[in-house]
Write a structure and sequence with these properties.
The protein is an all-beta fold and 60 residues long. It is built from no helices and 5 strands. The protein has a 5-stranded antiparallel β-sheet with strand order 4-3-2-1-5, with no helix packed on it. Strand 2 and strand 3 form a beta hairpin.
């Protein structure tokens, strides 16, 4: 499966489609399909970009 989040760059704002309660998160890094996001209500989470398609909210 392709990395559907390859366009995400540090500073972009996203939501996790399965966890809306986490709030908006800011992309910290995107390396080799692993996207690190700092969510407002969950903290720092590493997401497998080949399995989860994050929802772009905007740019920080």
């Amino acid at each position: 499966m392709d990395d559907q989040n390859s366009f995400l760059e540090p500073g972009m704002l996203v939501r996790h489609p399965a966890h809306p309660e986490w709030g908006v998160g800011q992309v910290q890094s995107n390396i080799g399909g692993r996207v690190t996001v700092n969510f407002a209500d969950e903290g720092k989470v590493v997401i497998d970009g080949r399995r989860i398609m994050l929802v772009l909210v905007g740019e920080g």
